[in-house]
Amino acid sequence: MKPFFFSSLILLLVATQPALAVNRVSSVSLPNPIPKGFKGPIERKGAVVPARKKITSDIGKVTITNTKFDVTLVAPYEAEFTVDESLILHYGKALIKSKGLGANQSKPIASMPIVKVDVIGSEFMLSYSNALSEAEVIVFERNIQLIKNGKKQAINQGFWIGEGGRFGLQLVKPILLPDESLDYFKSMFRM
Questions:
Q1: What span, in angstroms and rounded, lies between the C-alpha atoms of 76 and 57?
Q2: Residue 155 near residue 142 (C-beta atoms within 8 A)
Q3: N or C: the chain end with fewer CB closer than 10 Å?
């Protein structure tokens, strides 16, 4: 009777654990030839990027997919994923294509050291510079919520906003970018 009880208890414990997030590399783009001294992404297509593991690269691009979004990171970058599949961008540039989740959840979909972003089915760019301690956000589709110190600010399609460093410490009025500028920024993420 005891072995049955313990095996049932183990099954119950396993069944009540939340599913682990899966962040999978869907593409990697590197220059050819690869320059000497290259420090690129060690992740390869199909590889799983575990939560809380920092990924870095000095060169190239990598696209990673999970249930919340697809993210393309452009070198140089340092980023990691949380256990709930949110992105933490420590520095660099990231293009995020949300899959429609976000605002109904308790945690933002992406964060940088000075601001967080919550979205519902949007496409946007994040850029963070450690040297200047500043963040930039450009929204390509729909809108996002920028969160700083508990305050939220809506940023609509086609707008840019900067925060920290050269841009000041308070959230400011977003600036509408011309189509040519939006195209330029989006082109940085093409594989």
A1: 5
A2: no
A3: N
**Domain boundary assignment for the chain:** 21-187
* pTM tops 0.85: no
Give the per-residue pLDDT at 2. Answer: 52
CA distances from 47 to 23, 27, 63, 64, 189 (A): 8, 10, 11, 9, 20
User: Two tokens at 31?
Assistant: 């220059």
> Out of 3.40.1440.60, 2.60.120.10, 3.30.1450.10, 2.60.120.1440, which CATH number does the structure's domain 21-187 have?
2.60.120.1440
Counting every residue written for the chain, the total comes to 191
DSSP 43: -
What confidence tier does 105 reach under pLDDT thresholds 50, 70, 90?
low
Non-local (6+) Cβ contacts of 165 within 8 A are 129, 132, 133, 134
Tokens 């691009």 map to which residue?
61
